[in-house]
Amino acid sequence: MMSSLNWVQALAEVEKSGQAWVMATVIGTKGSSPRESASKMVITSEHSFDTIGGGQLEYAVCQKARAILEAGDGPSHVLENFPLAAKTNQCCGGAVSVLLEYFPEPAAKITIFGMGHVATTLVNVLGEMPAKISWVDSRDNLAQDKQMIGTPSNVTPFLYQSMLEHIDRMSANEIALVMTHDHALDYQLVEALLDRKDCRFIGLIGSQTKAMRFKKRLASASFSKAEIDSVHSPVGIPEVAGKKPFEIAISIAGQIIQLTQSITDQPKKVTGLTWKEINGALVDAKGA
């Protein structure tokens, strides 16, 4: 489905949604063509934004882009030549070379419970990461403030009557950070997150004393030692000490960055296109 957003506006939209997408760019034309070089469009599995000329050319490009999206692990760059008469049955009679650049969805998905001082600082740091971040609270005034002031493009604020409502919206293998204004709520959230049994990481803000009390309560609630030990509290790397909000936020951010830079999260090496491939496609366009 075509959207009314142009490709520049679409970049913010797809980044915030955390979905995979393809940028299609016309890098060369010969003869009569529907759009000029440097025309761009953004393509997702369900939508397309802007246009490189419409008609059968655009349909063919979208089909190619969605095949790349469906494969998920294909090349990050594909350069293809479209002779308009031969491949797309268009009457223009020219040829178009299109570069398709694949951008996968972020490997890391993070939910932060609480919009206090530490969380606010943390969100701005983690907002620089290639991650999809959900930011949750139940305090109407705070949630409205965050939406009005603005957040990084990959952060989505959520407001609930109870933050526990968000647990069911989470996907498997998410990183969960619990840092609300209420210790009783923190405990309820930790219990609910453990009950999911599919969180990649659970971090709980607080002191060593709070961590010990929570562990005793979780043991009394029949959680196993392995489950209890999976709750990282106090969350953060110990090398960054201090109790100021920015110090705690940096400590937590450091631990999350370490986690997301693990071997399993490293993207495959991107080699791009060789000059031979680029020149070959452009020569094909000239000769079409």
From TrEMBL:
Transmembrane regions: none
Residues of the XdhC- CoxI domain: 16-72
A matching Pfam family: XdhC_C
Segments forming domain XdhC Rossmann: 111-256
PANTHER family given in the database record: ALDEHYDE OXIDOREDUCTASE MOLYBDENUM COFACTOR ASSEMBLY PROTEIN (PTHR30388), XANTHINE DEHYDROGENASE SUBUNIT A-RELATED (PTHR30388:SF6)
Protein name (database record): Xanthine dehydrogenase accessory protein XdhC
Originating species: Marinomonas posidonica (strain CECT 7376 / NCIMB 14433 / IVIA-Po-181)
Source species taxonomy: Bacteria, Pseudomonadati, Pseudomonadota, Gammaproteobacteria, Oceanospirillales
